[in-house]
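Request: Give me one sample?
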Amino acid sequence: MTTGFIVRPARPADARALAELRWTFKQEDHEGQAPTPARPPHEAEQWIRDRLDDGRWLAWVAESGGEIFGHVFLCPVERMPEPYGDDNPLGYVTNFFVLPSQRNKGAGSALLEALKRHSRGTGFEGLIVWPSERSTPLYRRSGFHPPEELLELLLGT
């Protein structure tokens, strides 16, 4: 049940709040004391603003009282034209985060539902995600399943 908040498409004007949440999200990856960030959030703010502005990326936000407390991003992945079948894009789902104080209140599910509704409505072939251990149950409840066909090559730096 979604009460006390709204979910809406993100706008370029949301970039500062989204960048700040991104930094909060990534700091959560570190147990205990997070290291000092190697770059300032304003770099992420500009990156997010540019991509939302030109439509290369899409995002949805959860907000209450005008304050954004959660988000999920979608990057369309084009596919080569196909002479005998479907070449609809895939969607890469990433940067899914809800502030800890707002978790388990329906916002995560509502964000994923908005993303899925958009993806179905625009003809995406499917959605892919690399979930964290913590987010896997939510993705599973939302209908995501392990792929039958996927290979990965990690390129170390």
Notes: Strands lie at 6-9, 58-64, 67-77, 90-98, 126-128. The longest strand covers residues 67-77. DSSP finds four helices and five strands in the chain. The first helix runs from residue 15 to 27.
